[in-house]
Amino acid sequence: MNPDVDAYLSKAKKWQKEFEKLRMIILDCQLGEELKWGVPCYTFQRRNIVLIHGFKEYCALLFFKGALLKDSEDILITQTENTQATRQIRFTNTREIAEMEAVLKSYIHEAIEVEKSGLKVAFKKTTEFIIPEEFQNKLDEIPALKTAFDTLTHGRQRAYILYFSAPKQSKTRDSRVGKCIQQILNGKGLDDQ
Fold first, then answer.
1. pLDDT at 1
2. CB-CB contact of 138 with 181 (8 Å)
3. Which residues pair with 30 in a beta bridge?
4. 54, 62, 167, 187: least buried by Cβ within 10 Å?
5. Number of helices (H), then strands (E), in the chain
């Protein structure tokens, strides 16, 4: 047991009992325990396998390579439409967790085996993402913007494309593009300072 996770759990306002139950199940699977990204994360040979996190409506186990699991119980959830590798199992109370303990352990053991085997998730290439019309128009209008965007890393390009694509309304997408033009021209990613 990691003291950083102890401290995290002692301060958890919501899902504390659920987190503690999930923790015991995961630790019973002989995984290492760390606090990463501000949440309990469990590793095998220093590689991330699963983490525990909470949201307003549910808490969840998140499998880093969940897309590679068989999901024989059909319980894995893709968090968002742009999620490629991770999958969640969601809970709203400790009873649900207790009832699923054997299944959870089997999924955790399968995730460990996936990691041992060296399997990798086949990620979509940046070129496979659809560039929103509002951004494509600016790329067409401003050659320097296109050049700057093309020189960004694929991860930075993907972050911008997803950020620009998220809003439902065109005016919001256009506003986001406008606010980021200078940052792209400066060779910076969405979250770079």
1. 85
2. yes
3. none
4. 187
5. 8, 5
- Helix (H) or strand (E) holding 118, with range, is none
For the record, the structure tokens of 175 come out as: 């506003």
Task: Look at the pTM and tell me if it is higher than 0.85.
Answer: no
Spatial CA neighbour of 38 closest among 78, 5, 2: 5
Quickly count: other Cβ atoms within 10 Å of residue 80's Cβ.
8
Cα separation of the two ends of the chain: 36
The yes-or-no verdict on residue 81 having pLDDT over 80 is no
The one-letter amino acid code at 111 reads A
- ∠ CA 14-20-26, nearest 5°, is 130
For the chain, give every residue range classified as CATH 3.90.1150.200: 3-117
Question: Which residue has better confidence, 163 or 81?
Answer: 163
AA identity, residue 9: L
Please state, as a whole number, how many other Cβ atoms lie within 10 Å of the Cβ of residue 188.
15
Instruction: Give the right CATH number for 3-117 from 3.40.50.20, 3.90.1150.200, 2.60.40.1120, 3.30.360.10.
Output: 3.90.1150.200
Query: Is there a contact between 104 and 25 (Cβ–Cβ < 8 Å)?
Result: yes
Report in angstroms the alpha-carbon separations of 46 from 31, 43, 53: 9, 5, 19
Phi, psi dihedral angles at 82 (to 5 degrees): -95, 0
